[in-house]
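Predicting holo structure, GLP bound.
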Amino acid sequence: MRVIEVKDYREMSERAAAHILDYVNGMKSCTLGLATGGTPIGTYRSLVEAYRNKKVSFHHVYTVNLDEYVGLSAAHPNSYRFYMQENLFNHIDIPSEHTHIPNGMAADLAEECRRYEELIERLGGVDLQLLGIGINGHIGFNEPGTSFSSRTHLVKLTESTRSANARFFSNPEEVPTHAITMGIETIMRSREILLLAGGIKKAEILYKLFTEPVDEQIPASILQTHPNVTIIADSEALSRVKEKKVFIV
Ligand code: GLP
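Done. Tokens:
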């Protein structure tokens, strides 16, 4: 795992966007794995700005998002489809049929998971996967205890994740109880992974990521075994790692 330490959220976002832009500009066609949450919003903002300044086109890009809440439609302001449209897709030239997010409204959720996994295969797999990290170490919505050999599946969200995400909802009760997420193995099959972490809330989990053994109780720990992971983290997120003088490069 390569670690790039940056000053703050803004620098994290700019570095991440620059990495994605280099990638997209260097490929004839590619598939990006995208994430939601508070962390990548600044990255998406920088990508939109680069598009507006004619530094990139997304015409040849395909995207697959990590996850989606069950029971929220694309028009629901808290659905991840809505988030992606608002924060990125509506502002760039990506063809809408190139953008994919699990359908949390599917009548048959197990079938939707199979369809999504097949879709990723058909696209030739994910080239570059953007990831955030939950405070309990979840990636996508793969909660602690998820099998490392999981593919796209239905999950019951932990109370810790529901309350961490309640800030986006007007009422905490409205946070869905279930989600569809790419599995850990789905994520690990990506050719390259870019994980972003910012803020003091992520300090403890980053410390665990660098010091704990690979264990299904910390889903992100599996990233230690991936051959091409870059972590861009700000000084707050790395504060505990540095305080403990953990050697990370
Ligand atoms: C959410 C998402 C994850 C995200 C994580 C961290 O639950 N499903 O994909 O990485 O939690 O969120 P944030 O970036 O808001 O800290």
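The chain has eight helices and ten strands.
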